[in-house]
What we know:
alpha+beta; 8-stranded mixed beta sheet; globular; protease; cysteine-type deubiquitinase activity; hydrolase; phosphoprotein
Amino acid sequence: MTVEQNVLQQSKSQKHQQTFLNQLREITGINDIQVLQQALKDSNGNLELAVTFLTAKNAKVPQQEEATYYQTALPGNDRYISVGSQADTNVIDLTGDDKDDLQRAIALSLEESNRAFRETGITDEEQAISRVLEASIAENKASLKRTHPEVWSDSPNPYDRKRQDSCPVGLKNVGNTCWFSAVIQSLFNLLEFRRLVLNYNPLASAQDLPRNQKEHRNLPFMRELRYLFALLVGSKRKYVDPSSAVEILKDAFKSNDSQQQDVSEFTHKLLDWLEDAFQIKAEEERDGEKPKNPMVELFYGRFLAVGVLEGKKFENTEMFGQYPLQVNGFKDLHECLEAAMIEGEIESLHSENSGKSGQEHWFTELPPVLTFELSRFEFNQALGRPEKIHNKLEFPPILYLDRYMHKNREITRIKRDEIKRLKEYLTVLQQRLERYLSYGSGPKRFPLVDVLQYALEFASSKPVCTSPIDDIDASAPPSGTVTTQTIPSTTEQQGPSSSEIPSASPVQRSVIHKPFTQSRIPPDLPMHPAPRHITEEELSVLEGCLHRWRAEVENDTRDLQESISRIHWTIELMYSDKSMVQVPYRLHAVLVHEGQANAGHYWAYIYDHHQRRWMKYNDISVTKSTWEELERDSFGGYRNASAYCLMYINDKEQFLIQEEFNKETGQMLLGMDTLPPDLKDYVKEDNKRFEKELEEWDAELAQKVQQEKLLASQTPRMPAPSSAPVQAGEPEYLEQPSRTDLSKHLKEDSVRAITKALTEQEDRSPETVMQTAIKLEYARLLKLAQDDPPPECDYRLHHAVVYFMQNEAPKKIIERTLLEQFGDHNLSFDERCRNIMKVAQVKLEMIKPDEVNMEEYEGWHQEYRNYRETTMYLMVGLEHFQKKSYMEALLYLIYAYQNNKELLSKGLYRGHDEELISHYRRECLLKLNEHAAALFESGDDQEVNNGLIIMNELIVPCLPLLLVDETEEKDIAAVEDMRNRWCSYLGQEMEPNLQEKLTDFLPKLLDCSTEIKGFNDPPKLPSYSTHELCERFARIMLSLSRTPADGR
Length: 1048
């Protein structure tokens, strides 16, 4: 090994050693570097074992001394580290007297931690990463319980998996890999990074084989990453499967431990692997020059650590990748950065005072892609577990970093001193303002201006010359004596008068002054206390003083508030001058975590720089988003979701996001044109396979249609009015394509109204007849709306206007609906109706846009369609239930309940009886649960599998629907009954294969999550005329009333 290689090896080892120390500090909360190093040494470099040592109950953490807190490396030692916000995590003091001891401790620790690395080329940290990947993939294969259902099963219909136009491609979650999707999508959408990966080709010739284990890992990984990126560019699929890349990460390391680690380790390690992979290519292309690694050029920067320790100054340049920031105690990103860049007392850095110690960090070179890792997890030593910090932390879309640059350190120090002075002055002003706003010496305090106002009101009240108790008879009974007369309440005043109530005591009844026995207060009794004796002169002087003092206090308060606002504004604009806005970084991606420290889900918001909009990448789902949605999910403080990683890019480095252009034609290259030939062929092959899937699906559907036609031609046709299918989501409530329901019997009602109008009116002009017919129809529908019919006779199904009237729709909506009914072309079958139809159509055209809000009009009619659709779901579901077809009934009843709940949220008469639907939905689940349990008890493999299919596909997805509302006690009791039914098997003897299936199934059944999972598409509904719908609904409701169900 050459000297240069030895130095590189030591530098790499120091990097891994420092990363371990950073992680130990963050997990355990212990800041003493010697304690951390000793734990790492005792654990032989095993991170998990070191955490166990440090968090054990008998672990004694020595008090940290100031001398060990401010430690740094020897000046000039240029090395890679992961920068923390505490000095002891990234600097080593070699200036103190204990230099030799510390060096020996580091050497011993490095020797232990690097032993495996020297032998195999794989560090202990990398093995820990492997354990997480293995646990992730093993969990997917075992199909065990998840807090979040992250594993997606492919839809059998390939058209559901087809990419829409140029919509971005998603990544399938292959088992707790949402973190992988979020990170990869963020990097893929950096066009420069995408180009680097797609054009990666490290081996110059076929005989160049991997030379060590690291190359055995990196080269296959980069190959799969290229394939994955190529599919994200040109695939015709809506989402692609990253299993091959994940499998390679898993196969790179072997471990039997399946404990899951913190996912932030993956991000660190992913960049390390990419750096190593590109280092191979860089060394091939160096031609005698020092190789440049594009990953280092893209993601790594440098800062200068300047400090003083007990009067000794030091400077050290260090390299950083992801920059970690503490969240707790800060309100925005700049506050986090200020705290990370300044540690300890820094006055001695630019003064002669040698009694204080501290250090500053100054960026000397910023990377084009700057990533901040937000530390939102801390270890709770009392509880012995990690916890997530949900505090709100704001961050801007454009971040100016001039104030942290080394070239600006003099002006920044001046501004920091000015801000410090302003904040000190601000604190004084806020304390003074608080004395005005919280005046008093007792526990209760009030604004001083209000106190003076109350005093003024008291002084100005009408004086009284008597004591407040003089108007009550002094012969009132002493304490403890029963009194028969009290101040009556409002309700008592309506009963017998107090003089009619007999005395319960021989003591004379107290004589109460008349005002206390009347419901109104006489005008001569003051509403508030008032001065008993005050002269006009005294009142004049006092009023003058109070008015003057109140005005003075108001002016002082206003001046203080204005001064505070000015100072806030001055601080806000401190770095807004032109010289401090020269280094802009634009927010490119936000990686979000939802959940707690030990479980959760990850997704990413990524900015589309060309479309100038935010996109949300959530595994297979890629949707348009907004800055407002990003704020809500990322800032924290709103729910359990918050950002854990921010990726900013240099706004002046356009090559990061710039599209490629054809060198000959100058045209922009898009899609497949950006791929190298080998990847273009790879994507074409995959697209051919997907197109074949589509063709096979089409052929299968065509074959089914032919079989159905053949079967229909051979089978006698049965009269079944409910068999005609319609498109789901657009249930018809009209015979013709009109807005009003003109089925046969309603059409006859319209004609009947016209006929009656002709007989009542001598003037038979079309306009007069139409107006009369509309009035008659309105009166008929109003009578229906006002009736109180039995449940089987729902007049709302007869006409939309009845529904509108019962739910107090605006009169203009009702009038236009009736006009459309009489203006429909179906009334053109004879001359008299045709003339009325034409008049109605003219009236409709004369309605101005400002007279009827068409958006509101459409909304009412859409709601009525939803009501009829809900009715059909309910009706069909109840019909299946009565036939004991519980599996068919369940889906209809689920959609009936969900749609009905949404309708009822807008008004009491907008839906059906919620308790009725809830009862039959619950009964359906209980019946299916019993059926599935009976199949399981049979012991037959086929029947056991069928029973578990019923549970997994029908019952388990429905449980959150019953648990989401804690007030529905019957639903919650039903869930407990179903769970108890299956838990009762735990104590019974059964075959090993049954025990295994039960063990696999029970966690899903017992999952307490109330997250509602997606169901299949809504079942298709038949097309009913109004007459058919009313008749069938009445029939099913009558049958229910004749056969009452338990619990109704």
